[in-house]
Amino acid sequence: MISLEHLNKTFGNHQALTDINTTFNAHETTVIVGPSGSGKSTLLRSLNLLERPESGIYHFNDDNIDFAKPLSSKTILNVRRKTGMVFQDYNLFPHLSVVKNVMEGPIQVLNQKPDAAKQTALDLLDKVGLADKADAYPGQLSGGQQQRVAIARSLAMNPEYILLDEPTSALDPELEAGVLRVLLALAKEDDSMIIVTHNMEFARAVADKILFVEDGKILFDGTPSEFFKQPTQRIADFLAAMTFTTISDKAK
């Protein structure tokens, strides 16, 4: 389990995160939503230590990190091995084949033998529907296919949590659907995932828990059923904007 206590993060004079307190349960999918610039990605990146809050406590199972104190390289590496990050822009190695992209981390970081790493990579590519693309190169794939390779690469590291930062934001709707189907299947397998997304229907389908973040603060922390009942006017306005309800109503 991951939990955060009183997390604060600034960028210059901008308060990006303010007194964040929440829990991310294992074997559940937490979806983080909110308007652009609200602090969603900063919160997610803090879990992988790509961002370093200035204060607060980060509990990861039995490990406790106090952000007010310096972090050792060992601590950072330990957290990153447990939290696989999937970015918006794939970050695949263009000079390596698809299967070698998935194999690289397990061989270099986990010290797996190449034959074992390759078999695992092939199994994962099959899982994300890309078994026939193992010998292709990233430049030969669509954006949606590259993102599915990135997901397979993250899974190959056996992370305790998979962190996904708007994984479909750069994709057109058809390619987005393929990636979302993979993530929905992982959620049904009770993988531990934390996802930042702008897709409300996907959030409704995949989430065990939703965080609504605005101005660096958590304004809602609860179940999808509670969230989509629009418990506050701010959430109602946000959902109307995200689903174009207001526009549709005006057009009638």
TrEMBL record:
Query: Is-annotated flag, keyword Cytoplasm?
Result: no
**In what residue span(s) does the ABC transporter domain sit?**
2-240
Q: Is Transport there in the keyword field?
A: yes
Instruction: Kindly state which keywords UniProt assigns to this record, in alphabetical order.
Output: ATP-binding, Cell membrane, Membrane, Nucleotide-binding, Transport
Q: Name one GO molecular function term.
A: ATP binding
Its topology with respect to the membrane? Answer: Peripheral membrane protein
Provide the protein's localization: Cell membrane
Q: Which InterPro entries match?
A: AAA+_ATPase, ABC_ATPase_HisP-typ, ABC_transporter-like_ATP-bd, ABC_transporter-like_CS, MetN_ABC_transporter-like, P-loop_NTPase
Q: Which Pfam families match?
A: ABC_tran
* PANTHER family with a match to the protein in the record: AMINO ACID IMPORT ATP-BINDING PROTEIN (PTHR43166), L-CYSTINE IMPORT ATP-BINDING PROTEIN TCYN (PTHR43166:SF35)
| Name of the featured protein | Amino acid ABC transporter ATP-binding protein
